[in-house]
Amino acid sequence: MSKSTPQPGALSVLLGKLCFTPAGAAGVVLLALLPLIPPFNQEYLVRWLVQAALLAALAVAFDFTSGYVSIVNFGFCAIMGLGAYTSALIVIKTGISPWLTIWVGACTAAVMGFFIGLITLRLRGIFAACLAWFLGLALMGLATKMIWLTRGPLGLRVPRLFDTASNIPFYYVILVMMVVTYLITRLLVGTKMGLAFKAIGQNMEAARTSGINPMFYRIINFTISCALAGWLGGFYAHYYGILTPDMMHTAKTVEVLAIAYIGGRGSLWGGAAVAFPFMLAMELVRSGLSNLPGLNLVIYGLMLMLIMIYYPGGFAQFYNTYIGRPKKHLIRKLSGGAADNA
Question: In 3-state terms, what secondary structure has residue 323?
């Protein structure tokens, strides 16, 4: 019998509609079970997992802009901080539930992202990145100086989402937020708007000659990314329970950037995949080598250099080259052999 093309199973089709591969879905299930498996059920390790899931979600939102419209938003964590402070202050002043105010923080960050985009995205490359960085520094400066509102370096105490010492409820909330962030960005990338993003990122002039308005689509992309950052910032505020302007520092953005690029620029899922092992490794470095502050940033820098030299596509490129494609080839071969035997 002649060979027939293997048809994907019902589960693969369903996962494809949800923007997941079987490996990705298995990874999410594993992450959901991880706090229940020793030794990860210890509170300090669950806390590290919460931090890793937050970093993973931020890396996905950051990569949505840097990987698709080629704008590196160095003010990214300042926008996240704006969402965090907005949500926290509304809760403190009005007593409204933080479950509602985190959405207000997301809207505030989106509006700020829109106006920053109007100002910065008329420029290109490093100029747009630097201007976004300067505006981020301005936001951090305001948070530091407006002591009457934010308490500045003294820290603003914020009600938490859950009145419990356990980190497990927070972990499942941020895990869901991470998956939602990925789904939103992945679904948008799969639309006509996503095609415009890719065209602009690859060659802006060619995109313009094809009838695409680069300014329009870059602002949309930038605004969505900032909205997601503000939403995640709301979680940050109501998880840690205290806010200081340090959370808006450029060093925090560099950490997100490093994870996104090590994971694979333009992949979305790559940053989320590497955030967990990297965060656990960095926390071990911080706790074991506390007399060497900033060592984690040195490690991130070295990793970025190695990635850019040997694997510009990051972990996503490595996976597709050595795991994804060989596995697909093996499945086709086995399916073809089964068809022949039939």
Answer: helix
Helices H / strands E in the chain, number of each? 16, 2
| CB neighbours of residue 83 within 10 Å | 32
Judge whether 62 lies within some domain. Answer: yes
* DSSP summary character for residue 320: I
CATH of the domain at 200: 1.10.3470
267 and 67 Cβ atoms separated by less than 8 Å: yes
User: What is the rounded distance in angstroms from the CA atom of residue 203 to the CA atom of residue 83?
Assistant: 32
301 part of a folded domain? no
Residues ≥6 apart with Cβ < 8 Å to 319:
270, 273
Is the pTM above the cut of 0.85?
yes
Measured CA angle at 119 (ends 249, 112), to 5 deg: 55
Q: Tokens 């747009």 sit at which residue?
A: 128
Q: Count CA within 13 A, CB hemisphere, residue 140.
A: 22
* Rounded Cα gap, residues 257 and 60, in angstroms: 10
**154 within domain boundaries:** yes
Residue 68: what are its φ and ψ, rounded to 5°?
A: -115, -35
Where are the strands (E) in the chain, listed by range? 156-157, 242-243
Which amino acid, one-letter code, is at 183?
A: L
Q: What is the pLDDT of residues 242-289, one digit of tens each?
A: 999 999 998 899 899 999 999 998 899 999 999 999 888 888 887 777
Provide the CA 183 distance to its chain's centre, in angstroms.
Answer: 12
pLDDT band of 334, cuts 50, 70, 90: very low
State the residue range of the domain holding 207: 45-296
Distances (CA, A) of 110 to 15, 76, 83, 223: 30, 12, 9, 5
Dihedral sign, Cα of residue 248, residue 249, residue 250, residue 254: negative
Total of domains in the chain: 1
Long-range own/partner contacts, residues 290-298 (CB < 8 A, 24 or more apart): 296/255, 297/251, 297/254, 297/255
If you write DSSP's letter for every residue of 203-246 in order, what string do you get?
-HHHHHHTT--HHHHHHHHHHHHHHHHHHHHHHHHHHHSEE-GG
Residue 263, domain member (yes or no): yes
